[in-house]
Amino acid sequence: MSEANSPVSGESVEVEIDYMELDNIIEKEFGNDKENLIMILQAIQRKFNYIPHPTLAYLSVKIGIPLSQIYGVATFYSTFSLEPRGRNIVSICLGTACHVRGGERVRERIEDSLDIRNGETTQDGRFTLESVRCIGCCSLGPVIKINEDMHGRIASDEVGKILNQYE
Ligand code: FES
């Protein structure tokens, strides 16, 4: 595995947090209102592509909810990630319909192309690979979703061309 493509996980990818921008989200968009906790977390994740731990402590002070409670919410919903993720999230469907139509071969091709495994992020921060169980387009299987784009009925040898569309 080349060093440039070594996968990373955890907080090894540091992000710089602009607290003024964070204030814009918490105060201006959501009025410092604890009732908006989930929407605030969604907005933070949209901004950073994950929820950096320091933002949770800051949020706790700003809206007056104990940090443990905020962690409880952030870890309960699988759509939230507390780990750094790449600029592009590749979700490979391994549900039954996609599996029988060659989803595993597609997964292997993605892993080989990016030199990462499920749950990992490329060193350059370009891609994170996640597996999912059915994303509701079974008739299009095998399916991958990259960010908000669905790619259906894909053959494993099309993987490179599809990934190249994302910077
Ligand atoms: S099993 Fe893959 S979309 Fe349903």
CATH level-3 fold name of the largest domain? Glutaredoxin
**Sheet with the most strands, sense and barrel status:** 4 strands, mixed
The secondary-structure class comes to: alpha+beta
Examine the secondary-structure arrangement and name the CATH architecture of the largest domain.
Answer: 3-Layer(aba) Sandwich
Give the count of helical stretches. Answer: 7
Topology summary:
Blueprint lengths: L18 H11 L7 H12 L4 H11 L3 H10 L11 E6 L2 H5 L2 H12 L12 E6 L11 E3 L2 E3 L7 H5 L4
Parallel strand pairs: 1-2
Antiparallel strand pairs: 1-3, 3-4
Bound molecules: FE2/S2 (inorganic) cluster.
Quick structural summary:
The chain is 40% helix and 11% strand.
3D architecture notes:
With 167 residues, the protein is of the alpha+beta class. The protein has two domains: 10-76; 88-163, Glutaredoxin (3-Layer(aba) Sandwich), CATH 3.40.30.10. The chain is built from seven helices and four strands; from the N terminus they run ααααβααβββα. It has a four-stranded mixed β-sheet with strand order 2-1-3-4, with helices on one face. A hairpin with a 2-residue loop joins strand 3 and strand 4. The longest helix has 12 residues, at 37-48. It is elongated, with a radius of gyration of 18 Å.
